[in-house]
Amino acid sequence: AVAVAKQGCRTKMLGAVGTDLAGGLARKNLEDYGIDCGAVAAVSAPTGAAVITVCGGDNHIILDIGANGCVTPDVIEGQATLFDWADAVVLQYEIPVESVLAAAKLAKAHGCRVILNPAPVKTVDPALYGYVDLVVPNEFEASLLTGMEVKDRESAVPALRKLQEMGCRSALITLGKQGCAYINEDNDIAYAGIFDIKVVDTTAAGDSFIGGLCSMLCEGKTMREAVRYATAVSTLAVSRAGAGVSIPTADEVEAFLAERGDL
Q1: Tens digit of each residue's pLDDT (9 = 90 or more) over 113-166
Q2: Contact call for residues 200 and 238 (beta carbons, < 8 A)
Q3: Rounded-to-integer distance, Cα 36 and Cα 84, Å
Q4: How does strand 58-64 pair with strand 189-192?
Q5: Of 163, 246, 158, which is closest to residue 209 (Cα–Cα)?
Q6: Is 49 buried (19+), middle (13-18) or exposed (0-12) by CB count in 10 A?
Q7: Is 196 among the catalytic positions?
Q8: Among the options 20, 207, 251, 262, which is catalytic?
Q9: Which domains does the chain show, CATH number per domain?
Q10: What is the pLDDT of residues 205-224, one digit of tens each?
Q11: pTM for the full predicted model
């Protein structure tokens, strides 16, 4: 949500925080980035938390979903007007998987583009994929989802086709330093590289990429244009320490692209 908002898109969050101090701080942090938190409930469970360790630029995350576990299908369905407002809905697995399915169904019923970040990766109802317009796993997640080892561009191709067979209309697999590979609704495969930069902290790499991608697709950009922009967002994010604070604004991304050119 922060990544999308920092690209200038109107952004609303649907979720839950606790009534504890952490919940108030989390809500304020989102609102400070311009995110509408009207659909973020305050519940009796503790606010979800993530412990992030960084070594040599790489990160490991220990997650406790906390209050996010209270985002039930009933809660999702009670926010139907939110889906009527949205152009796109970005989903992930930090809420119950049955709630993800409920949200995907509502989104499609209201004509929204559904973008799924299947993280943290887990087993879900296969019916979910039939509502997904674009799924964006990393190579590890793609390997678990498809049962195929994904380690480079060549091995990503059968996994991309498998994700389509599972029901997703299009798919993109991020490959770290190798860039990404993607397949569109016409079954065309394409690749994109990366911009060279000194990596400081990869914590926000995936979220910033998806945020940049979503913002551009909502503006009507082609997949190629959206991937180029998303790669720039992610590149700038990993060149800085932190999570939300590391994600660049649209002005910073445009300046970077003007200097660096194409991938």
Answers
A1: 999 999 999 889 999 999 999 999 999 999 999 999 999 999 999 999 999 999
A2: yes
A3: 15
A4: unpaired
A5: 246
A6: middle
A7: no
A8: 207
A9: 72-260 (3.40.1190.20)
A10: 999 999 999 999 999 999 99
A11: 0.93
